[in-house]
């Protein structure tokens, strides 16, 4: 209601949205800076925890510095996606950036752990807008043929930030003050915000009735997601899975699921519209990316402990074993276009996740104790496989919807991946702790093992064997998740994604639509329907 599908306007009038790369340069720079903020903030705090706890106290609840941020980002993704489809990308990205920067400034002024956790949640409320809207804008700015370029750039930013975040956090905490971890966001975010305000121009909208905002649905989604994710994050950590708090949270979450369904069915413009799950392509991509989030927990959470306890590496060297996949993932993602143009989005993603399944299954067969290059090689191959899986799905699903549905679609994919990561952390944590308890006679869990590694000579042969078996079990579980993603693509996803006819057109330097070059069998056979008429348009 009250929306028009924005075509790129004249490049001379609005250089930030022209089709030429140079004309889009300032906007692309802003997107990369915004992505860097969101990616850095997910990792930069980890190495500064000792200094933060030493200054503010609150060791028993410090995990909420991460959990609170993650919860806020995850539950707000669908809300921001719908708002960006209703009001445009620019106001949502500007509002999210402001909230994120205010939260960063508040974090730097925190006087105790409770205040810092509350301010981290505020940061997360802005971070949800950054993650979802940046990915949506990337699809808006580039036609299908050029979209892998911007997505590869964003993947590179995310990978670099994931590696640099812990190191930067440790340096700032050791040589400056932990508060600079949050203050450093301000100049970077301010520059990104200025570039967006100055150079991103969305088309004027036709006069139309005021759009209805599903505030009741937004509140219900936020409450439901917050309760269920809290149950997953804290279950088995703060309390036992079958304890009264856990049962109460899961029970409340399931009740709120029913409330969300009831509210969204009655809403004129629901936050989570039913078509997100009724369309086979979107539903299949959501499920597959949820499995991706789940399996990513195995290397990101458990491989560093394996590298330290089993291989005897120092923390920095252990981090390098993990970080090698950030080299192959962006390269594979950038090159994936040459594959999916020939065989299609679905088949390319199936090759990627099928290869990933084999690689994950190979990990338990590594020799004990083995050499560091062996898991590093597997991670390098895994990054290449997942780059071939994730990017074609994201680009493919974005190309099946028009502008006024792209924000919601992109947010649903990111929401499922984030939820998969949360579920994976809980599920694989329980598996690892169960194996360790059985192997060590109930004498330890993963947290105890991780803390014990700080003591010289703590990794006894018995402990090393136990950690190896626990991580092998986790990787086997991750392989099952990858196999499920393969089956979803095989049996749920359509053989060819229904790409919109408008996605096979490009814009020239004047902003006029022109026919794109031949995209190969994928696009030639997948163009199934014209772009739907915008709501409220004549």
* Mean model confidence by pLDDT: 80
Order of helices and strands: HHHHHHHHHHHHHHHHHHHHEEH
Task: Calculate Rg over CA atoms.
Answer: 23 Å
* Alpha plus pi helix count: 21
Helix content: over 70%
Query: What would you call the shape?
Result: globular
Q: What's the CATH topology name of the largest domain?
A: Growth Hormone, Chain: A
Domain count: 3
Provide an overview of this structure:
Strand 1 (505-507) and strand 2 form a beta hairpin. It is built from 21 helices and two strands. The longest helix is centred in the C-terminal third of the chain and has 37 residues, at 403-439. It has helices spanning 21-41, 49-56, 64-87, 89-108, 113-141, 147-175, 180-183, 185-199, 215-234, 244-266, 275-278, 280-309, 315-323, 325-335, 337-343, 345-362, 373-398, 403-439, 446-452, 461-491, 521-526; strands spanning 505-507, 513-515. Helix 3 packs antiparallel against helix 18 and helix 16 packs antiparallel against helix 17 (373-398). A two-stranded antiparallel sheet has the order 1-2. 51% of the residues are buried. With 538 residues, it is mostly helical. The chain has three domains: 1-202, Growth Hormone, Chain: A (Up-down Bundle), CATH 1.20.1250.20; 214-268, no CATH class; 276-503, MFS general substrate transporter like domains (Growth Hormone, Chain: A, Up-down Bundle), CATH 1.20.1250.
């Amino acid at each position: 209601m009250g929306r028009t599908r924005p075509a790129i306007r004249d490049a001379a009038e609005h250089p930030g949205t022209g089709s030429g790369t140079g004309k889009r340069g300032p906007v692309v720079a802003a997107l990369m800076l915004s992505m860097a903020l969101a990616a850095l903030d997910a990792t930069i705090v980890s190495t500064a925890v000792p200094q933060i706890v030493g200054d503010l106290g609150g060791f028993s609840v410090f995990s909420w510095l991460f959990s609170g941020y993650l919860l806020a980002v995850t539950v707000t993704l669908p809300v921001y996606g719908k708002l960006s489809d209703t009001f445009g990308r620019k106001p949502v990205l500007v509002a999210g950036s402001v909230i994120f920067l205010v939260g960063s400034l508040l974090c730097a002024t925190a006087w105790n752990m409770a205040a810092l956790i509350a301010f981290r949640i505020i940061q997360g409320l802005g971070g949800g807008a950054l993650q979802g809207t940046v990915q949506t804008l990337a699809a808006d700015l580039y036609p299908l043929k050029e979209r892998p370029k911007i997505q590869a750039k964003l993947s590179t930013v995310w990978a670099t930030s994931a590696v640099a975040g812990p190191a930067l956090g440790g340096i700032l905490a050791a040589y400056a003050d932990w508060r600079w971890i949050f203050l450093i966001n301000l100049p970077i975010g301010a520059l990104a915000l200025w570039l967006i305000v100055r150079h991103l121009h969305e088309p004027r909208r036709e006069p139309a009735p005021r759009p209805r905002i599903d505030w009741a649905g937004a509140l219900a989604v936020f409450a439901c997601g917050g309760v269920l994710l809290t149950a997953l994050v804290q279950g088995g950590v703060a309390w036992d899975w079958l304890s009264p708090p856990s049962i109460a949270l899961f029970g409340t979450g399931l009740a709120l699921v029913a409330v969300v369904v009831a509210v969204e069915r009655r809403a004129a413009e629901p936050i989570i519209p039913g078509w997100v799950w009724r369309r086979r392509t979107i539903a299949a991509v959501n499920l597959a990316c949820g499995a991706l989030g789940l399996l990513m927990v195995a290397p990101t959470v458990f491989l560093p402990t394996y590298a330290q306890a089993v291989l005897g590496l120092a923390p920095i060297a252990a981090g390098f074993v993990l970080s090698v996949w950030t080299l192959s993932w962006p390269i594979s993602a950038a090159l994936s276009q040459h594959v999916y143009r020939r065989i299609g989005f679905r088949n390319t993603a199936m090759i990627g996740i099928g290869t990933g399944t084999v690689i994950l299954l190979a990990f338990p067969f590594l020799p004990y104790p083995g050499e560091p290059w062996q898991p590093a090689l597997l991670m390098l191959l895994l990054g290449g496989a997942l780059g071939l899986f994730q990017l074609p799905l994201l680009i493919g699903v974005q190309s099946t919807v028009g502008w006024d549905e792209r924000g919601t679609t992109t947010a649903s994919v990111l929401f499922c991946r984030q939820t998969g990561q949360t579920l994976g952390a809980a599920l694989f944590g329980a598996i690892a702790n169960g194996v360790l308890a059985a192997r060590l006679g109930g004498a330890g869990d993963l947290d105890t093992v991780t803390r014990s590694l700080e003591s010289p000579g703590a990794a006894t042969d018995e402990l090393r064997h136990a950690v190896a078996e626990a991580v092998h079990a986790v990787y086997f579980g991750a392989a099952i998740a990858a196999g499920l993603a393969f089956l979803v693509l095989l049996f749920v996803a359509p053989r060819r994604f229904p790409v919109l006819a408008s996605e096979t057109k490009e814009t020239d330097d004047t902003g006029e639509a022109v026919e794109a070059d031949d995209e190969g069998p994928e696009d030639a056979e997948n163009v199934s329907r014209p772009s739907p008429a915008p709501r409220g348009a004549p």
